[in-house]
Amino acid sequence: MATYIDRTCEIAIFDLMLIRKLGNITPFVAGDRSLLKEIFHPDKHSIDIHYSLAWASVKPQHKTQPHTLAYAEVYHIIKGRGRIHINNETKDVVETDTIYIPPRAIQFIKNTGQTDLEFLCIVDPAWQPNIESVIEQGH
């Protein structure tokens, strides 16, 4: 039995757990132009974590804007296929692949499939606006 349920986000808080429903989280367009849903962030949820967890989606044949983060990031591919670019390396990725992206690496991902590319993003310590730098096209 849930101790508390927030109907606006469908967050169920039990004695020892917090459950979020991805379908009820409002998406927004992130700085890298992916569609993002922030699942957990220590500044926005009363939980004892130091990382942030988000769901991202990229439409077929689209890519995220090249960018860097001051901290390490991990992508876990949930659905689809893509090509990850990290500095001078490029690799094809598919469902169940997990990618480590080092701090300050120039990164972007292209959806090479015919369906949406969906992946989880983990940033540790938690993502903050001041740790991300978007690289303008043509640079």
> Main sheet: which strands, in order across?
4-5-6-13-8-11
Do you know the CATH topology? Jelly Rolls
Number-wise, the strands total 14
Largest sheet: 6 strands, antiparallel
- Helix content range: under 10%
- Mind telling me the CATH class? Mainly Beta
Number of domains: 1
Low-pLDDT runs: none
Mean pLDDT: 90
Distance between the termini: 54 Å
CATH architecture: Sandwich
Shape by Cα distribution: globular
The number of helical runs is 0
Rg is: 16 Å
| Strand portion | over 45%
Structural class of the helices, strands and pairings?
mainly beta
The helix/strand series, from N terminus to C terminus, equals EEEEEEEEEEEEEE
CATH superfamily: Jelly Rolls
Summarize the structure.
The protein is an all-beta fold and 139 residues long. It has strands spanning 4-6, 11-13, 18-20, 28-29, 35-40, 52-58, 67-69, 72-79, 81-86, 89-94, 98-101, 107-111, 117-124, 132-134. A hairpin with a 4-residue loop joins strand 1 and strand 2 (11-13).
